[in-house]
Structure formats: structure tokens, C-alpha cells
Amino acid sequence: VGQNLPEEVYRHQYSPLLFKIITTLSITDIYHTIYFNALLLLLLTNIIFCTLKFAPKRLAAALDTGPAKKNYPYFEVISTDISEEKALSRIKKALYRPWRRMRIETEGRVTVITADPHPFLNLGALLVHVSIVLILAGGLLSLLFGFSGDMVIAEGESTSLVFGKTVNYKLDFMVMLDRFTFLQYDDGTPKEYKSEITFFDGEHETEAVITVNHPAKIHGIRFYQSSFGNTFHKAVIAVKDRTGATVLTTDAFPGIPIADVGRNLAFVIVDYAPDYMDDGPAVHLLVRDGEWEFGIWVLIHETDPKLHPDQTHTFVLLDYTEVPFSGLSVSRKPGLPLVWAGFIILCVGISFPLMLSSGSFRAEIKRKQKKGMRGITLSGAPGKIRGDFQRRFSEVIETVRKKIC
Amino acid sequence: MLSSRILSYVTFAYGISFILFIAYYLIRKKKVNHGADAVVLVTFVLHGAAIVLRWVESYRLGWGHIPLTNFYESLIFFSFALTFIYLLFRYTIRYDFLGAVMMPFSLLTLAYASFSPDIDRAIRPLIPALQSNWLTIHVITCFLAYAAFTLSFACALLYFWPRRRAPQIIPTKDVLDELVYRGVLVGMPLLTMGIITGSAWAHYAWGAYWSWDPKETWSLITWIIYALFLHARLIRGWRENRTSLLSIIGFLAMLFTFLGVNFILSGLHAYM
Description:
The complex is a heterodimer of chains A (405) and B (272).
Chain A: H1 7-13, H2 16-24, H3 34-62, E1 74-80, H4 84-95, E2 100-107, E3 110-117, H5 124-145, E4 147-154, E5 158-164, E6 168-184, E7 190-200, E8 205-211, E9 216-218, E10 221-241, E11 246-252, E12 258-260, E13 265-273, E14 282-289, E15 292-299, E16 313-332, H6 336-350, H7 352-356, E17 360-366, E18 374-381, H8 389-404
Chain B: H1 2-27, H2 30-60, H3 71-92, H4 98-115, H5 134-160, H6 173-205, H7 214-234, H8 240-264
């Protein structure tokens, strides 16, 4: 089911019964329903308890500094005549990987090199779960203590009103749109939407430029370029009497009444349509003509034909001007630092299992008592993936053999 | 455009490498397999060069952007990522059957991009939302993840292939199980990075790091399926049959995230 579409779309797509069901259950905006968010809360609770359950074991494994106690099911003896030091350094080099813990222990005549996945890698699952908790907690924090909405400002005007999804907010500073620029490539593709803004908190003015991908931030509130368009600004209205003679030509701004006391006439623009009933631009006037009050749509360059019996004047829209407006998304998300921290930890933690899967290796070098060949025992144990470890172990043997023989 | 012409040659070269990989199973000579790999390696370099050339061409047109911004370019890069993942596995884990399994995916993806009449191959200027450095890292990580999941899927399919028909050719179950798992192990961090970088980008471009856009929702579904795979394997000890099945389901979800969402649903990723 498409989300947040106009109601007509659903009416057109679904039968009346289905429409009623999906609207009653808010399936048209499912991600903001109480039951969906309750599910997310359950998930958060579940992850927290799971994490608490396995965390001590993982932490102990990560901090384990004891000797490697692994059983090595695969082993092979390689004979070499190079010195113990050389053998040691070359085997160490062959087994080294950045994520392996290399340890060298000497006991009597035997030196043992072990190369295991670093115990720290055991923290992978813990990091992933903690990060998800952080991300969800950050989202919850923003939901409870933050807000988001939209702000529409015409060029040259200012506002502090943010229209939220259900509630509107009033900022404690004004936002003024100094200039809006819309640039296009030669082929007509949009290139840039740019709002030049001034924030004014009663004492200080701060200027900012907002483009897509480059929001502005002030007092912890972020402003993003979201939409744009043109809005009606001013009309030139001509008033004619019953003979058709123009008696008044005036500039008219929406919401500001025009009065002609001598003719006992007053009118105000209450609405504007860029294309009224496919007949072009028109303004909606509320008129008081003598004792009569009525509303009337006035088309451009066209005298209002419907003369009311008691109406002594007609109106013509001679000209009009539009100004650009900018739509800004406005939000304050106090949980954002938690979300970012969660993102980074998630990226790190989720790559640990890959390194943990490489298997463990052990080389046992015995000190020679007299001249001759030295036997080096190389053993291996698969990590989390057994797969064809035997073949990979043979490859390690081959690499070591090349280095020390 | 020269880059498109090179890419059609690259398609044929992938085809040749695939034929050589198949020939290897018929005549069983290691040299044929090495020859096929050499062809893949050279073709991969050529493929990369064509992508760089398209990048240069976009600068000549005065727009200058990385060629990862529309459906055609995403298919070209997906094919490149598939070959990259193949080469990565080929030269680290060294299974010689992988070429025959992975090359058809690189080949088909690139052939669809190069020869389908429905795809617009022109270089277009970038709309404001796409003008971000996050684009590069987001697209690269996502497609590398898709490629790793494709490898896992291909091995999972092979796992279910009737072994008695070609016992000499199909690798052992242990090997396939390992590759199914490794594909997911490589893909999962990449997909996570892809989703997170996309989220960070959305934060700057749209003002919300998560909007429940269909693409976002389906990428989360894909991520959850592969997370389920990892849990099943690591906690419940699932292996072979069951994890292979999960890999196939994950791949289908991934395919829907990549293609289905754009063709069937509408949302903020409409330009892909």
C-alpha cells in the first residue's frame, strides 16, 4: 500500500470496504502508527535483554589473555636447515594478518608461535547489538524531545511557524528568505535550488545559504532545502462602472482591503488560482458594493460578465506578479549523536565475524642439538567456517615451506 | 560514445571467458582455467577503464560526475562489482570452479545494460539531490554487497543442484557451504555501510536519515534476512540446506530492493 498518498488515489485503487479497512488501521501511514512503533519498542527491549544476556561471556572472551587452548586437528612436519631465529621470523611473517594475535612462547627447547583471530573480535556481536540499541534509542529520543516539520517562506518575507505532521511549532526566532535562486542546466534539468536566509532572534542576525545536501543549523535546529515554487504577490485591478468606463485602477495585495469611500465600494483579494477552470490566472475577490457583499472570481483581461442586479461595478484583472517561495524542512533531533555513534559502531562490529572466520595456526620449532635438519610442526584449526580448511591449510604449509626450505 | 563501445567489447570478452570456464570442465586442463582467468583479469581492467572514460566524457559535456547515477550506470557498475568479487574470492580462497558460476552474472548484467533497447545510455546532468560525495560511497558499497550476495546465492543454487548428474564438476557440500557463508560475511558489512552511508546522505539531502521510503524499507528487509542467516548459523548452528535456502531468499529480497522497488513501487529513489 502506497504511503501518504492523496485520499483520492486510495479511493480509486481500492474498493470502498478495503478503503475503509486500510484507512481505519492507518495502513496508509503505517510507519507512524502506534502499533508499528510499539513493535519497534518491543524490538528495542528484546535486543537490550539479549545483549545483556550474552555480553558477560563475550566480554570475558575478548579480554582473555591466557594461552591458546585450541585443539589443532591438522598438522604437518616440515624439515629445514635454517637457524631458529630465521625460521621464527619467517614463519611469523607467513602467519601474520592484522587481525590475528601472534604469540611466541619458549619452553625449554621448544619455541611455539600461535596465530589466532584476536580475542577482541569476539566483541563483534556485542558491538552490533549495542549499536542497534543506540540507533533505536536515538530515534526514540528525537521522537519524544525533538520535532520536525515544514516552513514555507515567500521571497522577502519572514516567518517563525513550522507546520508539523500533527502539531505546528513556533520558533523563538524569525527566518527570512532574502532570495531564492533556481538554476537549470541547458537541457532544462534542475541544477540548484538555493535559499539565502537570514535568522533573526531579536538581537542578532545570522545569514545562511541553504541548498540541497547543504542544510543550515542554528540553535540546534536544522533547515533543509525541500521544495520551491511561485506564489501570488500582487494584482493590478481595474474597476468599471455600469457604462464600462474605468473608474479606478489600483495595485492590490492579498488580504489587504481596497476602499473607495466616494463610491461606497470595498474589495479584498482572498484567493488566487494560476489556472482557474482552464481559463488562465484569476483572483478571488470579496466585494462590498453599496449594501451588497459577494465573492467573485476575476479572470485576467476579462470583465466580470455576471453583473449582479444590485452590483454597480465590475472588475478586471489587468496584471499580476508572483514571487518565488522556498519550502524548508525544519527539524531538531536531540538523538542524532546517538544515531551517528550507533552507525559507526555498527560498521565496525559487523565486519568482525569475517576476520574471526580465518582459523588458527600454531608452529612448534624445536632447538637443534647438533648439525642437521630441524623439524618444525605446523598445525591448524578451522575458525567459524570449516569448509575446505584442509586445502587452505595445505596452502599455508606450502607458503611456509617456500619461506624456510 | 567510446565508453559504451568499449563496454560492448567487454561484454563479449566476459562471454569468451565464460566459454573458456565451461571448456575447462570438458577438457580438464588447468591451462584453460588459467587462460579464462587471464581473460577475466584483462576484461576487468578494460571494464574499469570504460567506467573512468565515461566519467571523463561527463566532464567533456560540462557536467562532470561519477558514472553511478542512473539505471544504465548502476548496471555497468554492478557487473564490475560482480567481477571484482569473483576475482577477490578467486585469488584469496582459490576455488577454480567459481569462474563458471560467477561469470554468467557479470555477462548477463552487462549484456542487459549494453544491448537492451529500454535503457537510456546517455550521460545526463546531476539533479541537486544527487550532487553529493555520499553518492560515491553509498553506491559502491551497496553494489559490492549485492555482488557478494550474488556469489553466495550462486553457490547456494549449486548446492541444490542434483549432484549425481555431474559428480566430477560440482564441488563438495562443505566447499559450497563455506562460500555461501563467506559471501554473506563479505556482503553484510558492505550492505550495512551502504545503508548507513545512504542514511547519512538522506540526512543532508532530505532532512531525515530514515523516511521509510520503499527502497529504505526493502534494504532493511534484505539486511534483516541476512542478519537472520548469521544468527541461524552462529547461534542455532544451521548449515548447508537451511542456510543455502536463506541465502536464496536473501538474494531475492536484494533483487527486489535493487530492481523491484524501482519498477513496481514509487519513492525517493525514482531516479535509479
